Structures are given as C-alpha cells and as structure tokens.
Amino acid sequence: MGKTGKKGGKRLKKKELAKMLMELFQNNPAEVYDIKRIFRDLKLDTHPAKLLCMDLLEDLAMDDYIKETEKLHFRLNTTGQVFEAIFNRKANGKNTVTPLDGGEPVLVAERNSLHAMGGDKVKVTLLARRKHHVREAQVVEILERNDKSFVGKLEVRKDFAFLLTEDRTLANDIFIPKKALKGGKSGDKAVVKITEWPEHAKNPIGKVVDILGQSGDNTTEMHSILAEYGLPYAYPKSVEDEAEKIDPGITAEEIGLREDLREVTTFTIDPRDAKDFDDAISIRKTDDGLWEVGVHIADVSHYVKEGSVIDKEAVKRATSVYLVDRTIPMLPERLCNFICSLRPNEEKLTYSVVFKLDDKAVVKDWHLAHTVIKSDRRFTYEEVQKVLEDHKEASPEDYKMPGDHEADPNFNGPDVLPAEHFATELITLNRLAKQLRARRFEHGSINFDRSEVRFDIDDKGKPIGVYFKVAKDANKLVEEFMLLANRTVAESVGKQPKNKKPKTLPYRVHDLPDQDKLINLSEFIVKFGYKLKPTGSKEEVAKGLNKLLTDIQGKKEQNLIETVSLRAMMKARYSTHNIGHYGLAFDYYTHFTSPIRRYPDVMVHRLLTRYADGGRSASQDKYEELCEHCSAMEQLAASAERASIKYKQVEFMSDKLGQVFEGTVSGVTEFGLYVEINENKCEGMVPLRDLDDDYYEFDERNYCLWGRKHHHRYSLGDTVQVKVVKANLEKKQLDYALVRE
C-alpha cells in the first residue's frame, strides 16, 4: 500500500479497509490497539482514509466484532453469543450482566431477566442488535443463586405478609406466606430470603430467616444495617466455645523460644473507647547511642491456627466492623479483648519489628522476632497529646519522674504510673516520628489530613452531640511507626535482586490516580487561583497535589478541593501482585500491625513466620483469592459504617425540623444538591424539583447546576442556608429546602 492511503493509485475502498481491519484484530486477538497504532500499522496517512477507518471501527464495535476497552483503544471481542455472567439487578429495570471473563456490562431488560437476583451467576445470550441501540442480552438460565437476604419492615395481614424493603435493587415488596413468618409481627425488622419468583408474578416470594426486633430500637437498627450488607451481627456459639478452650497461659518453654522484652519500657496508645489493643511501642537507648524502637503486634497466629473453626470464621468476616456505637469483631471477644489484647501489666506474646534509629530517625538496623512483652501503661491519645503539649519547650531529660502511683482501674488496673512518668519516651518517639513523616512527604507521600465527625451517644444509643476527630501529634506518632513496620516487613519479602523471584505476600496496593479525573481537577481549581500539573512522573504529580493541599489549608474552598482531589484517587486494596502504594509513595507496603481486626495481617504474620523458618513460597493463587475477598469485605464494612453514621445523622436531626442552618454544597447531581450543615456535618438533599425558580441543568465537569433563564449557579463548595424539612429514618435520608436571601 502506498504512502497516501491509496492502493495502486486508487483511493482505498470501504470493503478493502474493513477486511484489513478485521485481519489485523483476528491475527492479534490479545492485542489492544490505540487509534494511532492502527493508522500506523495500516499505513493510513490521509485524512479521508483515517475518517473511513474511524467509521469502520464504530461499525465493528456496534457489531461486537471488536470492543473499545477505553477511549479509542480496541481489541478483538472474544465473548461469544452465549456466555456466563453475574447479574446486577436495578430497581429501574435497567439490569445488567457482567461477563465472567471481565468484559463490559451488557443491558438486560426486566422482561428478559428470568427474575434473576443481584449476584446470581447466569447463562446469557446476546440479542440481535438494533442500529443505534445499545447491546442487550437475555438470561436463559440461572446457574447459581446468590445467597442474598433482604432487610425490611414486616407488614402482616390476615392471611399473608409483605416485607417492605428500602433495597434499591427490588422494585416490588417481598410476599411472605403466613407459615414462613417465624413469629414476626407488623413493625418488626426482619431478614428475609427469596425462595422463588414465579415467572408471571409481580412479587418475589420469601421466608423470614431472622427477626431483628422492633423497628426504631437502636440495636435492631444497627443489626439491620449489618444484615443489609450481608455482614454478621451475632457470633456463632461453636466459635465462641472454641475460643473458651484456648489456654491463655504463657509457659516458660514458650518464653524460652522468644526474644524476652518484658523489661523494656513499653506502652499502648489507643482511642479512649478501645478494648482491643493490637499494637504496643517500646523504646530504649542502646549502648552505641542509638534509639531501639520496638513495634510489637499481638501474635494472633500463635493462637488462631490456619483451618481451625475460629480461623474459618475470621476468613469469612475478614475484618472487624466499626459502627457508630459498637464494634463487630473479627475474632471472638475472649481473643480480641483478653487473650491477644496487649493489656497493661500482663505478659503477652507478640510479633515484633525492632528498629535501631539514629537521632535523625534513620534506620541503622532492624530485625523481626517473636517476642514476649509486658506493657507498662495503657495510654489514650488525649493523655499522650497532653504530655507532648505540656513539654514542648523543655528538654525531655527534665521530665523523668519517680514512680508516683495513682489508681485508674478503668484503664490500667491498680498502681498506674502517671502519664508524666513516660515523658522522655513519648517526646523522643514524637521527635523521631516527625522526622520520619517529613521524609515520607519529601518522597511524595500525599497528605490527606481530614477531620472525621463522631457522635456522643447516650446509653440508649441516641446521638446527643457531635465532635470532630482530628489527628494530632499523638495519633501521628503511632501512625508513623506502624507505617514503618508495615513497609519494612513488605520490603523484606518483596525487595529481591532482579534474578530472584520474591515469595508470595499479600501487599496493600494503591494505584495511580485516574488521569481524566486529575485533568478535571486541574481545570476545576483554576477558577480558585490554584494550579496543578496533572501529567508527569509519579513524584511530580504527588508533589503538586501536596502543594495544592497545603495551599488550601484554612481557605473556604479547602473542604471542596480536598473532596474533588480524593475523588481522583483510586481505592487501596490487597493483592499478591505488588504495584506499590501511590498515596504513601512506598514501593512495598503491607498490613502487619492489626491482626486482631484485619485478616490480611494474620496472613502476613503466618507467611513471615514460614519464610523466617526457611519455608517455600506459598501458593499465589490461593492468597490472591483471599486478598480479593478481604478487599471486598473491607468495602462492605466501610459501607455499613457509613450507613450507621447516616442513620445517626438523621436521628440527630429529627428533632430539628423547621430549623435553619448554614451549610456547604457537598455534592451536585442531576437530581439535586447535597448540602452538609457546617456545625455538625449532617448531610441532606435539596431535590431538583424544589429548585422551582428556573430550569436547572447539570454541569458534571464543573460540579454545578446552572439555571437556563436567570443563569443562577449552585456549585460544589457554595455556602447556602437550608431548612430541615424531613428526616426519614427508614431511608436514612434528610431532606433540606434552600432558604433564599
């Protein structure tokens, strides 16, 4: 073919180019081609030839011969007419199926769904495509039912009942025969499983599997949230019985196998309401003038053996869940709050990373060891913060105090040493942590320091006030040494010479930000007078983001720009395929420091022990599957936590109907504005239908609604006055109305 996209002096015909394109993809079925490469490989260098090629690519994609993997990137479509997929149910009837081979979702209309439920594994056939219509499929067989249950309020009639559910994936309520009610009464919150959905019936038929209690009761509502996300709200008796059999005693023989650090000054630092202390820190000066800092982690894997009853339950849960007013632990209470918890003045088995640092917090040496420790004191963050603030100016050596005892039975048992007694150690650790932190940011770690809203709750679970949790030096001190321990053990396995394959390890990975969202962010912040270069090396982009986050501190647009920046970030997850952690700017990172509440840390402990004993690399497939499960459970737990916060926000605002508050536009969608009240961070919605002074259009790129006629604009970050109109606890929804000047 000649240089001009002509053949034998003639312009290339559509049929010929189509054949060339089909051959290109057919001969390279696994290859993804971007548009420039297609032009280059087929030597298309005239404008008409390129336009013809673009038209043909569109036709081939419409015919499902090829698929567009991302904008202007194409590959051969290897999905057949009939394939297996996972069904995703939508309340609006626009259901989709996601092919098991990871292809793009395909639309399934309700009439073609065979009443499949969300998460069902189905066999699907593609329907003939209509010109200029999206591809559609039809479910021909349900291969495997998802074990999903639904949560809602029972409405019991004379001969039958319904479950009224807020689940958005169901357009209709669930019909329950009287014999399948399990004693439920009208107004009870219940968990229901669908047993059948006859082909021509409007409503699915279900049976009650559990009655949670009377609607509106705090425990009932918290258990409802857990059940809604398929999370456990009770502990199996068999697992608790197994935990009761564990001998917590630490034998002389066991101590003989470990590094004995019981005499080293050691303490835990945790939130004031914590009961499971899974990390402790020790510090002492060595003879060669270095600081020996030990990060000691509860040795859960010593007590929880792989494949045991307790282990299987921990795998299933994968994480503890932290709702507003309670913790749903990953391990039975006897283990997480007693045997494994690093309680003060008790000998405990730990797995420790022991560092030797110089005065500039440079690690000169480190080792990993199974240890035995004895914590001298249980600190709250507030106590440590007070010591750090009281002794800012003075030399730490001035504050070594004699053992003047005071009793504090809630925290430490009798004879508690006052916080001041540990001033030297705390000040030294803080100084070292600050140097570690500064170096981390120099290397491109991103500084998202956001305050979190928390509720003060009375003994009935009712929210009576709001406070903001801000990370201060005490929190950052602990965080920095945990990061150092996690990073160091990850490097010890992952960082190998080029010719040596690293052994399998679950890493905590974090991908690069979404490029399009970064470009959008950089365009968005210009109107506030800020700049960000969205392209360049990882380090350059991270440094640009950090500069932006520093520049907006204290400005009225801070919250808004932080929110938009966070949206550009990918979610961190677990994987045996290490791609590094972008947000922390670490090439190797894992989770080692919280095995009481996270299963990946238990896996890491087991593998580190195995490798230290000279064991072979573990099965990557097995651990990758576990990583995917743990990532999914982490997301579910986070969703349940958010739902519990949302519930408490609605409950907190329910006695403030009609009151007016100042708020900030925290979200903009095509159906309205989200507004967050400034004084308590309770978020509600102003529906678009209530903005009746104009016809408003949604501008997605600029996060705003603008009026066609009067050109009034509501943008993310705007300050507005709102009135509380409605507080719907069932839907966990607050409705606000704008109060116009």
UniProtKB/TrEMBL annotation:
One term under GO cellular component: cytosol
EC class of the enzyme, as a word: hydrolase
A GO BP entry: mRNA catabolic process
Boundaries of every S1 motif domain copy: 658-739
One Pfam entry name: RNB
Similarity field: Belongs to the RNR ribonuclease family. RNase R subfamily.
PANTHER family: DIS3-LIKE EXONUCLEASE 2, RIBONUCLEASE
Protein name per Swiss-Prot or TrEMBL: Ribonuclease R
